[in-house]
Amino acid sequence: MTATCVILDIGGVLEITPETGWVQRWEERLELPLGTVHDRMHDVWRAGSVGTISERGVQEQVAVRLGLDAFQAEAFMADLWAEYLGTPNEDLIDYVRGLQGRCRLGILSNSFVGARERETALYHFDELVEQIVYSHEIGIEKPDLGAFEAACAGLEVQPGDCLFIDDAAVNVEAAQAAGMQAHLFEGNARTITRIAAHLDAGPLVPGRFLIA
Q: Yes or no: is domain 5-16+87-201 CATH 3.40.50.1000?
């Protein structure tokens, strides 16, 4: 059975996430050279994105590696989450909500341990789509083809029937390599037009081909 499907990224698509400069502010506050935070924390950030460290473990490592007390480490993590979560892209979210019942809906996100709980509480993405695939829960990040395969398998859809939307070109290219149709998010208007065209075309059937 075929089904038309739309799968979206979160950060930069469903969430508006401009850089806030929080890392640089912490480096200035701690009198550290620029780049020190990422140099010291890069393996922890990676572990958090694929779920090999707990959220508590992240905060503990922040305190140890940056020399922060418990209060400072909590404030550091609050700044991290403020940039990570951004603000909701209300117009696109409202449009996607209107697609419920017309197609299968999913989310595929490179994420960080703790993201599901926060995004559910703030934005209720669990009520917007049928399935959310987070990298920290499956241990695989985009552009790994396994991430796209997991999203399609979870929704029980064929890759060719899916339109994937992301703000990173490398992920769009990877989705296409996985057999999906894909669209680079550069604004709501063009994205909504692309989704509408995808829905009008319907699912692929034998002998019928669509160019992404």
A: yes
